[in-house]
Amino acid sequence: MALNAELVARVERIEPDPGPDPGTSEHTDGEFDAVVEQLLGEHRPEALWVFAYGSLIWNPEFTFVEQRLATAPGWHRSFCMRLTRWRGTREFPALMLALDRGGSCNGIVYRLPDQDHFGQLGLLMRREIDANPPTNIPRWIKVKTKDGPLLALAFVAAPEGPAYAGRLPLERVAHTLAHAAGHWGSSAQYLFRTVSKLEENGIRDRNLWRIQDMVAGRIIASTASHSKA
User: Fold this and answer.
1) Is 21 a residue whose pLDDT tops 90?
2) Is 128 a catalytic residue?
């Protein structure tokens, strides 16, 4: 793996939080609760599974009682969300992973405790759903595991969402991830943690592997003169 902690440290920084973009707002507690009620109305599971493909793998922020490797047919992991907060700014937007239509995605499903599904889903909504109107939205998807198929909650990209960036050239993705940062830190850190955790679990995403190599090269090139000084 070409990208490493030392290279990430070269571009790591914290930017001020600019707040929601004009024309958007933060969700209210009532709006989050309504989303949870809708999800539980669509499917009230005996066991609540969450499909993780990005930061939920290395920073789940929820309690889980079981995990399994899983594949989500019909979806692929893609840097298709444009962010002007968190790991980017309005002047230099970041890109974040989401599930986009087509292909398949290998990830991990986590089974959450059997108690208080409403409360657990509420915490997930507050962590994962972006500005209002949202682009990163929750939905139940079918996943495959070695122990059989499951219905799991995942966060997918809404093509009509204001932050949807679509399919971008890898060169543009790599340039963005090598330079963007926000009040949660750098995009390079996000990429490094994601690829590292996927590798730990035996998951090799071909596109992400190419991107991390390209990002490492761009960081080396952009910081070489500074390192010699």
Assistant:
1) no
2) yes
